[in-house]
What we know:
five-stranded mixed sheet, single chain, alpha/beta
Amino acid sequence: MIDAHVHLEKGNYCIDWIQEFIQHALLRDIDEIYFLEHTHIFKECQSLYDEMSHYNAYQNQWYKRKLEAARPLKEYTDFIENMKKEQFPIRIKFGLEVCYSPEHEEDISRLKKCIPLISLLVRFILLMNGRSAI
């Protein structure tokens, strides 16, 4: 079984945090996990949320809080590179969950280019009308 929608953002990027997810997966007969971080937690992805953050006061405050705690994308890519050297009892893959809107296709393309080290591991989930498209 595969769990293809897991987020690490509530913890530190470290092997101990990954191991917690793996232990839960093993108990549930899951043999593959896709760790997909939301792009709103990365500083480099700020432009993807310009329109959304101005939709209303609630959205604006929500995104301001996210931006204040934003991490550099390099923190995630470095972590992935380190995890590729490890052996795990299940298959793990890493990627990004990208909220898609046509006006940001260029930004999304730039984002793909800024992570060439993991381009084969990264899956961009483009949310279009409730369906994902790779």
